[in-house]
Write a structure and sequence with these properties.
- There is one protein chain.
- The chain is an alpha+beta fold and 458 residues long.
- It is built from 12 helices and 18 strands.
- Among the domains are: 75 residues, Dna Ligase, domain 1; 153 residues, ATPase, nucleotide binding domain (Nucleotidyltransferase, domain 5, 2-Layer Sandwich); 30 residues.
- α6 crosses α7.
Amino acid sequence: MSNKTTDYVVGLDIGTTKIAVLIGRKNEHGKLEILGMGKAPSPGVSRGVVTRVTPTVEAIKEAVRQAEEKSELTVREVNVGIAGQHIRSIQHRGVKIRDSYEDEITEKDVEALRRDMYKLVMQPGEKIIEVIPQEYIVDNEQGIVDPVGMSGGRLEANFHLIIAQVAAVKNIVKCVEKAGLKPLEITLEPLASAEAVLHEDEKEAGVALVDIGGGTTDLAIFQENIIRHSAVIPFGGNVISEDIKEGCSIIRKQAELLKLKFGSTLASENLENEIISIPGLRGRTPKEISVKNLAHIIEARMTEIIEQVYYEIRNSGFEHKLIAGIVVTGGGSQLKHVTQLFEFTAGMDARIGYPAEHLAAGTEEITSPTFSTGVGLVLKGYDFLEYQERLENAGKKQEEKIIEPQLVTSLENNESPLEMEGELEDENLNFEERHIDRRGSLLSRFLERAKIYLEGDE
C-alpha cells in the first residue's frame, strides 16, 4: 500500500459494474484527501467474481492510468477489495499458553494468536482471507479489548473469520499482478464500506451496514464496536436492470438509464399519469412506459433483496440489538424512497451512508455512495500500515530485553565477562583438586587398615 513512502495509500475496488482506483492521503487533521481517482467499466466481473481475466486486467490498467494522471503519482501497491457469493464467515476461539505469568503480553503474542487462526483446516477449495479479533480473555477475565501490557499465562480470543474460495482469490490476485501492481492486503468490501460510512457511536449502539452493489448486496453487523456477522447476498442493482429490461421489453442500456433517472422503490409514491417515452430502435415508433409500472418492477425485486438482508440479520441473533438500525450505501442506495422501503420491510430505522465524514474539503466528487468501498479501502490501508508499524516497534522492544543472563549478572557486580569466565575456571580447578584429595585420603585409610589386619594375624 505504501508507494515509496507512506505519504499516500491506494484502494482498488473491483466491482461488478465498475473498477475504481482511489489514491488518498491523510492531512494534518486526520481527514482523507483524494489525490486521484479513476474508474472503468468491468465487463470481466460477474456478481463480484472475476469471470474473464483479460478484460478485467485492461479495466484495472485504465482506472490506474486515470488516477495516476490526476494525482501525478505512480501506483505500485494497492489494497484490494473482495466480494462475491462464495464469501462466508464463522466465529472461532483461539488459545495461547504463555511461558511466563510475569512477562507482559506484547503485540507479538497477540499477533501470534491471530496468525494461528490461518492454520485452521477449511473445506476443500476454501481459505481464510481475514481474521478479525472480537474480544480477548486473559486468565478467564473476559471482555478485554486490548490485552497488550497485561500479565497472564493463558491468552484467549474470539475471532471473526472471513472465508473465500481459493480460486476466486487467486483470480483477483492474478488480475492485479498482471496489471503491474502488488496486492498488499485483501479486504472484505462490506468491512471497507463500514469504515467509510459508519460512525463510532453507531458501531457501539449496534448497526447493520447494507452495501447494494451491481452484482451483490453485502452485509456487515456491528455491535459494541465489534464485527458480529458478515454475509454476501447474490443480488444487486444489475438484477433490477435485468427485470426492467424483461418487464418493459427494452434493451439493457435503456433499462439502466430508466433505473438511474426515474427509478423508485415505492410504487405508491408515483402518479398513474406519469409516462416516459423511449426512442424506438432503428426508426421504430417510440415506446411509452408508465413510471408507476416501472416502480412496481423495482419495488418487487428490492423487496426480495431486503427480505434476504433481514433473514441474515435475524439469523445473526442481533435483530433486537441494532439500536442504530440500518445504514444503506452503494450504487443501489441512490434509488428513490429506498430508506422508506427498508423501514417498512425490516421494521428498523434506516439512513443513506455517504463517505463524506472522513473526507477533507474539496473532494465532493467522491462523496457519492458508489465510492464508499473505494474510500474505505484507502482508510483500511492506513489501518494496515499503522498495525505493521506497531508490530515492528514491539519487535524492537523485545530484542532490547533479550540479554544473556551471565552478562546481566556480571554487569550488576561491575565485572566484565572475561573476569567472570576466569572465576568460573578457578572454581572448576578447585573442584577437581578437592576431588583428587578426597580420593587420596580414601586410599591411604584403606592401606592403613589392611596393614593393621595383617599385623594382627601374625
